[in-house]
């Protein structure tokens, strides 16, 4: 494995410069790391036709790949003019995730960057099966870009869940804030820290207590405990009081409103490897990912963003 840390940009199969190109170039420059760009091509029609006329189709496929290689090399050349060390390649493969794991195993990757897919008919962003696979299973941090109005992020938001009290959850929250703080420092961006306390969920979990005064007391105690844990987390990472946001309400709505109001460029949040999607850190995180109010940097337990 290469000992030099790299960023990996997964370019779309279409030969079009997307927001992820600009974000990758900006981060590579800020982090002073080389960038490798890879595009995965696979045309089902060519693959089927190749069963009947393999020589001709192989020539057609190689011609298509060469055109794509040249286009990608041109994009790399544009980035290199701004002081970024860039390499590129095109790979013919039907299932790219396995090939991405090859890059993970062969290169020392600090971060994988990819565009999130936009479904224009509904005017919202969805993540493709590959995106979800990267978020769920990829062992290195993944940055999914929805737009790059600011190629170098200006506002970074760390979302944490202090409801759970297990040691591994506290450590994971520290990793998330650490990654967000490093990204903000590298990009000279603002850093905000957010936790949303969903008291309605607490009531729903404690319906068995019956009496409203008792449930209210539990709600107040939990709210106080969470606020103290949130304040302690912020103190450990030197987040000033003005940048700490402990909000009560519906998490999904509160987070999306916060992103809109504060013009957030990147949400930094945690995902758990090799498990169901609904155990993304925070009970509403999967819904948040479906709505994708801005770009997302997903951190795995035990993996820290390199700086």
The portion of residues forming beta strands comes to 15-25%
CA radius of gyration: 22 Å
Strand line-up across the major sheet: 3-2-1-4-7-12-11-8-9-10
Number of strands: 12
CATH class of the largest domain: Alpha Beta
SSE run: EHEHHEHEEEHEEHEHHEHEHE
Number of helices: 10
Overall 3D shape:
elongated
Structural class: alpha/beta
Provide the residue-averaged pLDDT.
82
Q: Could you explain the architecture of this structure?
A:
By secondary structure, the protein is an alpha/beta fold. The protein folds into two domains: 115 residues, HUPs (Rossmann fold, 3-Layer(aba) Sandwich), CATH 3.40.50.620; 190 residues, Rossmann fold, CATH 3.40.50.12370. It is 45% helix and 22% strand. It contains ten helices and twelve strands. The chain has a ten-stranded mixed β-sheet with strand order 3-2-1-4-7-12-11-8-9-10, with helices on both faces. The protein has a two-stranded antiparallel sheet with strand order 5-6. β1, α1 and β2 form a beta-alpha-beta unit. It is elongated.
Q: Quick recap of the structure?
A:
The chain is an alpha/beta fold and 307 residues long. It contains 10 helices and 12 strands. Strand 5 and strand 6 form a beta hairpin.
Walk me through the topology.
Layout: E1 5-11, H1 19-31, E2 35-41, H2 44-49, H3 54-80, E3 86-92, H4 96-106, E4 108-115, E5 117-119, E6 124-126, H5 129-137, E7 142-145, E8 155-159, H6 167-187, E9 190-197, H7 199-205, H8 212-236, E10 244-248, H9 251-262, E11 266-270, H10 285-291, E12 295-299
Parallel strand pairs: 1-2, 1-4, 2-3, 4-7, 8-9, 8-11, 9-10, 11-12
Antiparallel strand pairs: 5-6, 7-12
């Amino acid at each position: 494995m290469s000992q030099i840390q790299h960023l990996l940009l997964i370019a779309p199969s279409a030969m079009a410069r997307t927001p992820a190109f600009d974000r990758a170039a900006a981060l590579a420059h800020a982090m002073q790391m080389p960038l490798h760009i890879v595009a995965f091509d696979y045309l089902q029609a060519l693959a089927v036709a190749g069963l009947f006329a393999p020589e001709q189709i192989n020539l057609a496929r190689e011609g298509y790949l060469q055109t794509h290689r040249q286009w990608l090399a041109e994009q790399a050349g544009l980035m290199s003019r701004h002081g970024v060390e860039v390499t590129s390649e095109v790979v013919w493969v039907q299932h790219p995730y396995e090939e991405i794991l090859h890059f993970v195993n062969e290169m020392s990757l600090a971060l994988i960057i990819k565009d999130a897919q936009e479904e224009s008919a509904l005017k919202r962003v969805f993540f493709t099966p590959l995106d979800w696979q990267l978020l769920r299973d990829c062992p290195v941090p993944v940055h999914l870009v929805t737009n790059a109005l600011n190629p170098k992020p200006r506002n970074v938001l760390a979302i944490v869940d202090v409801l759970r009290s297990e040691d591994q959850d506290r450590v994971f929250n520290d990793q998330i804030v650490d990654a967000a703080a490093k990204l903000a420092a590298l990009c000279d961006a603002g850093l905000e820290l957010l936790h949303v306390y969903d008291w309605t969920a607490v009531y729903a979990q404690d319906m068995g207590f019956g009496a409203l005064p008792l449930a209210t007391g539990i709600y107040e105690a939990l709210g106080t405990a969470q606020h103290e844990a949130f304040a302690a987390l912020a103190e450990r990472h030197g987040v000033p009081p003005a940048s700490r946001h402990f909000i009560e309400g519906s998490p999904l709505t509160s987070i999306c409103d916060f992103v809109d109001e504060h013009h957030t460029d990147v949400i930094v949040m945690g995902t758990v490897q090799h498990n169901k999607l609904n155990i993304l850190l925070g009970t509403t995180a999967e819904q948040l990912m479906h709505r994708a109010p801005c770009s997302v940097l997903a951190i795995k337990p035990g993996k820290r963003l390199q700086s």
